[in-house]
Write a structure and sequence with these properties.
alpha/beta, eight-stranded mixed sheet, four-stranded antiparallel sheet, 12 helices, about 35% helix
């Protein structure tokens, strides 16, 4: 039996580096990334826009646009096998069948000239040995499962609201019972009330299908509600990884601390919110040493000289900050 399988691991990313090589220079989108996801777990993937979260997800799906995107090195071990060794026909069998992705904008994820039942049935036929009639029946079942009446299965995407379109996208993603669901900011385009409904639906269906999930978001409130583990990403690197409770009670990396400090506190009367000084670095020209050091109030001389390794600060809690790890561990 594979070591990962014995340990209950579904996905393990090892030293993954993804770059976009352009005429203007090389974009260092993901640098030496390491992640682990257990079976049945939900991992929150948190960071600012441009941190490399979506690129990592596309790398797992082997959907990095090439050119200009290049997976330079690393391994993506899923169910004991390296996805980077798979052929494109093999990956087509894995996408949708074993790993499914929900994109952040349902408006552009659906085909506007196909009825929603046919779009779900298309995915089912691709991965299951069923005929047209059976696939359409299963499509209707999936729509009912996500809270859309079967009578609406012949409607087109433009006849649905934003929240219902996202439900259709979720139905497509779950149609073939994947082991891993990747949700890339699935509620960004929705209003707050509908966001809550969609997230509750995803949580319920994830448990029902016994799937693992990677939830890409910048909202720490969503992470607190849904996730088991959290990975904080900055400038292409994971800078902190921990169980949700450990991270929220004892954040270690200065970037993580800055994120929590910037969340409004309902018990405090403040006119100005706390912010992290400066801006995300240019991915074509990353700072030397720790990429966060130009914005960090805890930085010392060595921070600009040496790239920090992930340090154990507790049971399963890792952080890439030698300055604070010892003090907070």
């Amino acid at each position: 039996m594979d070591e990962n399988t014995k340990n209950g691991l579904l996905l393990e990313i090892q030293d993954l580096t993804i770059q976009y090589v352009t005429d203007s220079g090389t974009v260092h989108a993901v640098e030496n990334l390491n992640l682990r996801l257990g079976r049945g777990e939900t991992l929150g993937f948190v960071g600012e826009t441009g941190a490399g979260k979506t690129t990592t997800a596309l790398g797992i799906m082997r959907l990095i646009p090439s050119p200009p995107g290049v997976i330079q090195s690393g391994k993506i071990i899923f169910e004991g096998q390296n996805l980077l060794d798979k052929s494109e026909p093999e990956m087509r069998g894995i996408r949708g069948g074993k790993i499914a992705m929900i994109f952040q904008d349902p408006m552009t994820s659906l085909n506007p000239v196909m009825t929603v039942d046919k779009q779900i049935a298309e995915m089912i036929k691709l991965h299951k040995n069923v005929n047209e009639a059976e696939s359409l029946k299963l499509a209707g079942d999936m729509l009912e499962l996500v809270g859309i009446q079967r009578e609406r299965m012949h409607d087109y995407p433009h006849q649905f609201s934003g929240g219902m379109k996202q439900r259709v996208v979720i139905a497509i993603a779950l149609a073939c019972d994947p082991g891993l669901l990747i949700a890339d900011e699935p509620t960004t385009a929705l209003d707050v009330t509908i966001q809550a409904q969609v997230l509750e639906l995803m949580k319920k269906l994830k448990q029902q299908f016994d799937a693992s999930m990677i939830l890409i978001t910048h909202d720490l409130g969503i992470v607190a509600d849904i996730c088991d583990k959290v990975a904080i990403m900055y400038a292409g690197r994971v800078v902190e990884y921990a169980d949700k409770c450990a991270l929220y009670s004892n954040p270690v990396h200065p970037y993580t601390i800055g994120l929590f400090n910037s969340v409004p506190d309902l018990d405090e009367d403040k006119e100005v919110l706390n912010t992290i000084p400066g801006l995300m670095p240019d991915p074509m020209d990353l700072p030397s040493g720790c990429t966060f050091h130009p914005r960090c109030t805890y930085a010392v001389d060595r921070c600009s000289q040496t790239k920090p390794e992930m340090i154990h600060v507790g049971d399963g809690h890792l952080a890439a900050c030698p300055v604070l790890a010892k003090a907070r561990g």
